[in-house]
């Protein structure tokens, strides 16, 4: 999978992933619905199952590689109380090309 940081124009997939994270963390009603049932919240989002799973499972590395803005990823981690160490390790794994990268 090519990174959108290399592509000239981000993909529709990256747009929708960014949109989901923005909406969830900038609109309380979206956050409440997401926390209640992420799968139901994501049902109407035009994303491949793999990308919906990455959002649902908080797979930071996969979301970053798919072109999600790192600031939105950071807000996602803060909003869901994902530890800073998990966020940073996920990004480091991408940079090092490790198993999660």
Automatic annotation (TrEMBL):
Alphabetical list of SUPFAM superfamilies matching this protein: LigA subunit of an aromatic-ring-opening dioxygenase LigAB
Xref: Gene3D superfamilies: Dioxygenase LigAB, LigA subunit (1.10.700.10)
Top-level taxon: Bacteria
Coiled-coil segments on the chain, per record: none
Domain Extradiol ring-cleavage dioxygenase LigAB LigA subunit span(s) in chain numbering: 17-74
Name recorded for this polypeptide: Subunit of meta cleavage enzyme
């Amino acid at each position: 999978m090519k990174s959108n940081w290399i592509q000239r124009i981000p993909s529709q997939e990256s747009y929708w992933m960014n949109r989901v994270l923005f909406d969830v963390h900038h609109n309380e009603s979206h956050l409440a619905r997401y926390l209640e049932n992420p799968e139901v919240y994501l049902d109407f989002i035009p994303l491949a199952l793999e990308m919906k799973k990455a959002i649902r499972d908080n797979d930071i590395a996969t979301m970053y590689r798919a072109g999600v803005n790192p600031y939105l990823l950071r807000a996602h981690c803060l909003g869901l109380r994902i530890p800073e160490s998990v966020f940073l390790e996920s990004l480091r794994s991408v940079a090092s090309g490790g198993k999660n990268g």
